[in-house]
Design the sequence.
């Protein structure tokens, strides 16, 4: 398997050239994240999430050549997905049931998409532990390719570095290096979004 | 905090809980749909690049224009006539491009480079390409006619019979997720499965040219399945297996009127995968001499054999992949 494809414009170029592995890397990295983005926005209806994500990705395929790299690939897909969800809600005429998520609040959405912290935001107090936990998961999904997966495999599922390397198709040393970069990236993202260090966030969630 | 002290991250992630993942079944279904759309996009990009090259060449001096022609597969005249519909069953449609409406393929006055073809759940079609190649599509199949010697399969299955034309026949290339399949005088099938791409050979040889792997040559009876991860599994399939029946059912009809029994047997042998063997020179001579009249319209090749042979003084016995033809007992 290829080394981690971190340069998104290069990934798109290779997909447009018909490279099968580039498509596989794209799909493996982005489909689960997009699914998690859609699911809470369609009342946790799995079939509805599948439909909007499939529709989003097929539209993205048709417009691949239009991706300019100005926004992160995941952000670009989320923009398409939001439109698909709105269209679906309109079609179903169930606006009253639409769930407003904390990361759809305009200021926090901007923060998530640019990973910049808004001023003064006590999320746990405002929205509860469960929703705050989901926000942490959203931060994971917005990290560069496979960082979120690697962190979850190690710290939530308890896999060894060796096992993580096997999953990613890279050697032990490369897996260690990827985890180190992932940790740095995750800490920075938490700091930017929540204005707090990982240690403080952990204490808040555990209290 | 030292970077290697990761207890804070561990605690944040455990408190947040694991992320949900889509089921394997859902992942496969979405993968297939999106992969098909991606392949169609790649084909369009190739077509656009080829058209840009063609236009640039046409606008420049002749010598410079020739230098830009990098291969037959890339260059074509947009809209060049490529195939005729020999036979269609059920829903079979074509469209000129993504912005066009689907139209009934049976109404088309020939199919052209750049067009796409789709068969429905009940549809099958046999296309006659130049140089005598027969291209047949199974149910739920989508292909794009990329150039006069290249088609791209985005879903479903195709069967290629290069006919009895010799080595000088154009080498049709079939693009699949597993790579490009090129025949060397053959009958073969390329099918896109949930698990990957399957290629099987009934007659002759094919080369499977992988984008990221070695080229594989398959011969009669060879079958490989190439998974999405690029893992190959090789098995065997008999040329006369009934798994080939769908291709026979989609075959163009054979008009027996005025044809010799020998010609009829040659056709039936190709379509059933049976090797025609004459038990004696006398039976071979009789097959050359006897001329048929009538019609086998609506009969598949096996049914046609059962219907036609009893009307002649020949009989056929199937054994070990052969149809042995001998004179009927008087």
Sequence:
């Amino acid at each position: 398997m290829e080394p981690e494809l971190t340069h998104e414009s290069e990934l798109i170029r290779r997909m447009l050239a018909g490279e099968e592995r580039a498509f596989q890397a794209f799909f493996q990295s982005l489909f689960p994240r997009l699914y998690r983005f859609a699911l809470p926005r369609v009342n946790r209806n799995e079939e509805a999430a599948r439909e909007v994500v499939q529709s989003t990705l097929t539209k993205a395929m048709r417009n691949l050549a239009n991706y300019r790299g100005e926004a992160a690939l995941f952000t670009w897909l989320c923009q398409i997905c939001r439109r698909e969800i709105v269209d679906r809600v309109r079609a179903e005429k169930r606006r009253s049931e639409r769930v407003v998520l904390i990361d759809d609040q305009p200021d926090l959405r901007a923060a998530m998409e640019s990973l910049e912290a808004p001023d003064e935001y006590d999320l746990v107090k405002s929205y509860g532990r469960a929703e705050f936990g989901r926000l942490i998961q959203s931060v994971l999904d917005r990290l560069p390719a496979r960082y979120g997966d690697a962190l979850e495999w190690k710290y939530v599922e308890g896999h060894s570095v060796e096992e993580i390397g096997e999953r990613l198709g890279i050697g032990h040393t490369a897996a260690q290096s990827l985890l180190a970069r992932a940790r740095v990236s995750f800490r920075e993202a938490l700091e930017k979004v929540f204005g707090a260090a990982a240690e403080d966030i952990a204490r808040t969630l555990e209290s | 905090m030292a970077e290697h002290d990761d207890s804070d991250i561990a605690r944040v992630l455990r408190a947040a809980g694991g992320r949900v993942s889509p089921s394997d079944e859902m992942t496969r279904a979405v993968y297939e749909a999106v992969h098909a759309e991606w392949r169609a996009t790649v084909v369009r990009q190739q077509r656009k690049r080829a058209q840009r090259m063609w236009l640039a060449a046409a606008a420049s001096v002749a010598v410079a224009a020739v230098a830009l022609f990098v291969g037959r597969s890339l260059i074509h005249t947009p809209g060049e006539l490529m195939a005729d519909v020999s036979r269609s069953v059920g829903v079979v449609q074509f469209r000129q491009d993504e912005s066009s409406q689907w139209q009934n393929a049976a109404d088309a006055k020939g199919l052209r480079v750049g067009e796409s073809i789709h068969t429905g759940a009940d549809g099958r079609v046999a296309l006659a390409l130049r140089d005598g190649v027969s291209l047949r599509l199974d149910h739920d199949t989508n292909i794009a006619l990329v150039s006069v010697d290249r088609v791209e399969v985005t879903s479903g299955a195709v069967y290629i019979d290069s006919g009895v034309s010799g080595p000088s026949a154009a080498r049709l290339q079939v693009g699949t997720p597993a790579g490009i399949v090129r025949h060397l005088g053959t009958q073969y099938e390329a099918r896109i499965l949930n698990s990957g791409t399957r290629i099987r050979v009934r007659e002759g040889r094919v080369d499977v040219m992988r984008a990221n792997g070695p080229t594989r040559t398959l011969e009669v009876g060879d079958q490989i399945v190439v998974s999405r991860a690029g893992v190959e599994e090789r098995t065997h399939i008999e040329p006369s297996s009934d798994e080939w029946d769908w291709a026979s059912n989609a075959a163009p009809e054979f008009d027996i009127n005025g044809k010799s029994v020998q010609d009829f047997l040659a056709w039936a042998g190709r379509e059933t995968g049976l090797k025609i063997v004459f038990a004696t020179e006398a039976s071979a001579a009789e097959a050359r001499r006897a001329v048929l009249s009538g019609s086998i319209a609506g009969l598949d090749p096996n049914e046609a054999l059962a219907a036609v042979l009893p009307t002649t003084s020949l009989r056929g016995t199937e054994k070990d992949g052969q149809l042995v033809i001998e004179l009927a007992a008087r």
Chain B has seven helices and 21 strands.
